[in-house]
Structures are given as C-alpha cells and as structure tokens.
Amino acid sequence: MEFRHLGKSGLIISEIAYGNWITHGSQVEEDTATACVRAALDAGITTFDTADVYAQGKAEEVLGRALKGERRDGLEIFSKVYWPMGEGKNDKGLSRKHILRGVEDSLRRLGTDYLDLYQAHRFDYTTPLEETMRAFEDLVRQGKALYIGVSEWRAEEIERALKIADEMGFDRIVSSQPQYNMLWRVIESEVVPVCEREGIGQVVWSPIAGGVLTGKYKPGREAPAGSRADDPRSRHFIADKAEDQALLERVQQLEPLAAEAGLSMPQLAVAWVLQNPNVSAAIIGASRPEQVRDNVQAAGVKLDAGLLARVDEILGDSVQRDPALTKSPDNIRDL
C-alpha cells in the first residue's frame, strides 16, 4: 500500500480507502462484509469511509464491529452527515441540531470516540453556511472530529466555506469527496483547481463507475447475475451506463490497454484515478474479499502519458465533464 497526505493537512491516509456504501448492511451479509474489511486490512488499507445514511446506520454498525479490536490510532475512519435519518423535521440537513446529533449517533454505531474526518454529505441551501461551519468547528474543538470535509460540493460552495472559516478563525475544510472516474470528470475544470490552490485533497468515490469500468457488462448481453446492475436495490445507480451499448463497446476497447500495462480492468480504473495529483485516495467497495485483493494492486501504479491519451481517445464523448452536474437537492426539507 502507498500513502498520501489528505490535501495539505498533516493527516496521512492510504491512497486506496475502503468504503461501504450499498454493500454493508444491505447488499451483502455481515460475515462477507467482515471478510472484505479483513482483506482490506491485510492489504494495508488503513482508511475506511462510511456515512450515517448508508443502510440507515447499519453500514456504520457493521464497519464498527468489523474494526473492533484494531488499534484505533492506526486507522482513519471517515463518516458523513446530511441525508434524512428519521421522520422528524430536524433529522436531516446541516443544521447545528442535526450535525451535533448526527456525530453522536455515528460515534456510537462505529464504536469509537472520534472520527478522523467528518464530512458534509451535500450542500444544504436551507441552513446558513455560518451555522454549519460553526457546528463543525465545535466538533473539532471537542475532539469528536479531527478534520472536516465535504462531499459533492461545487467549487463556489467550497470557496464560500473557506472564506467563512478564514473570517471566523475556524479550521478549514481539508477534503472533498466527489464521484470521479474515467467516465465522470466533472470536477476537473472547477473543483480541482480551487482545491489545488487551497490545499484540499480529493477522496473520490466510484473509481470503477459502479462496475462499468470492470468490463463485466458486455454489449448486447444481460447484466451478470448478482452484479450491481442485476440487483434491484442498486440497479438504478448505474442503469444508464450499463444499458448504454455504445459506451459498453468503448469500455471493451480498454481491455488491451489494461493487459498491456499488466493490470486487470478494475486495477486500470483505480490506477487512472490515482494519477491525478489532487487525489488523496480512491475509495473502493466490494461484495467479495477477492475484489478488494484485486483492486488494491492499483496502489503505486504509474501510467504513462501515452496510455492515458489512448484512454481519452477510446472513451471520446462518453466522458462527462460538465461541472454543473455537481449539485445538491434544492431543499433538504422536501426530502
């Protein structure tokens, strides 16, 4: 495993992190989830990402049990707050009330007394940003969160938060957690330049595009049994890509590039993400331990410029680059 600083902070994390969105507490049984976590630990992964909303708290509970007994100082545990966690009017968003309640619930479920990184899971247009930033600052001062980050925030939203932090003497955001992969590059034109300038690192999710970049979805064929596109609980997340025949044909053309580099298709996808110098870590997920063992071999891989150019040529206009596609719900209260 290779390690990188989280942005320009002093926190060092594994460049491949393990995440449990969709899988833990819902898609796979707990013994399999635990086996995946053990495989991650055995491979040298020290950074684990989750969120309160994943399986409505069950994912945090499963991860907490799987990590029980590990030396806490040797791990970096991340979680997030924003999405609805109950029926109450204050059980969602980035109000002070929901953040302070949310962190206590996440700490309890994870079985820890602090989070290494606590992230705003989306931008909340219904709560004053000053209120949100002050609540996060209080958590840092209390030692319940060591660092603060955001997920799926636009460049101008990140800049507003930094301005408030500087004016009010608060700790600054150190990380951004966007979707990023060969097909989804919407952060490159605006978010990445701001973050590079301000010392914020990207901890990216979906480096293999929900499995599409593994090459397992073949043009003209049904989705493989047991795959994410075959599972009714997760199918809607990738149906648009898994049913795009032109895209699937282009993805198949990446296989010779992966073979040339001595990589599997998932390894090529994860390694591609890690070539971006603003990326601090790529989050992998797994429903089987062997997927973890395969993905982690992308750590430390260097891809030459010629191969990267050929990836761009093959994928062509299948790549999404519009920064406007990064957005949060207009009103969390309506959710």
Q: How would you describe this structure to a colleague?
A:
By secondary structure, the protein is α/β, with parallel strands linked by helices. The protein has one domain: NADP-dependent oxidoreductase domain (TIM Barrel). Helices cover 37% and strands 13% of the residues. An eight-stranded parallel beta barrel has the order 3-4-5-6-7-8-9-10, surrounded by four helices. Strands 1-2 form a two-stranded antiparallel sheet. Helix 1 crosses helix 2, helix 1 runs parallel beside helix 11 and helix 3 packs parallel to helix 4. The longest helix is centred in the first third of the chain and has 15 residues. The chain is globular.
Helices, strands, pairings?
Elements: E1 3-5, E2 12-14, E3 16-19, H1 30-42, E4 47-49, H2 58-67, E5 76-81, H3 96-110, E6 115-120, H4 129-142, E7 145-150, H5 155-168, E8 175-176, H6 191-198, E9 201-204, H7 235-242, H8 245-252, H9 255-260, H10 265-274, E10 279-284, H11 289-295, H12 305-315
Helix pairs in contact: 1-2, 1-11, 2-3, 3-4, 5-6
